[in-house]
Each structure stands twice: as C-alpha cells, then as structure tokens.
Amino acid sequence: MKNFEKRLERLEFLAEKIKEPDLPIEDAMSVFEEGMKLSKGLKKDLETLRGKVEIIINSADDDSATLAAVPFEEAASNEEKA
C-alpha cells in the first residue's frame, strides 16, 4: 500500500487527461493502460484494508478478544479451520 494517495492522485490525473479531445489515440491508449494498472493495484490495496477492518470488527465482537491487527490471509485461514 506504498504511496496509496500518490497513486490515487495519478489515477485522477489520468482520468482527466483521457477526456482531452485533442489527445492522440496512441497517447489515450497509454493513459488508459496506465490507469487500468493503477486501478487494479488500488483495488487490491482496498480489499486488503477491508479484510483487516473486518478482522478487527469481528475481534471486537468477542468480549474476551484483545484487539489486534492480524494479516487478512492468516485470519481467513484460521476461520476455514474452525
């Protein structure tokens, strides 16, 4: 999730740039490709964060649980075993 905000700003810039009517098609394709890559990476980061939030919320529901961040993959693996 390194530089999430910077990557989001870049995606917003690209979204505006691709709307330019005088942008050559080759440049538009490059902008589109970069935007799709950024979008995919940002989506993955958000899904990871969502998983961590769910783990924290579920931990808070158990009165005896201590709130602690657990990697999403580890928690999901533990839930499958239960």
Verbal overview:
With 82 residues, the chain is mostly helical. Helix content is 74%, strand content 0%. The chain has one domain.
SSE layout:
Blueprint: H1 4-17, H2 25-61, H3 72-81
Helix pairs in contact: 1-2
Distance between the termini: 30 Å
The number of domains is: 1
Task: Calculate the mean pLDDT score and round it.
Answer: 84
What is the subunit organization of this protein? single chain
Shape category: rod-shaped
**Main sheet?**
none
* SS class: mainly alpha
In N-to-C order, the SSE pattern is HHH
The Rg value, from CA coordinates, equals: 19 Å
The residue fraction in helices comes out at over 70%
Number of helices: 3
Instruction: Give me the count of strands.
Output: 0
Q: How much strand? A: under 5%
Unreliable stretches (pLDDT < 50, length at least 5) are none
What structural keywords apply?
mainly alpha, 3 helices, 0% strand, 74% helix, 82 residues, single chain
Briefly characterize the structure.
With 82 residues, the protein is mostly helical. The chain contains 3 helices and no strands.
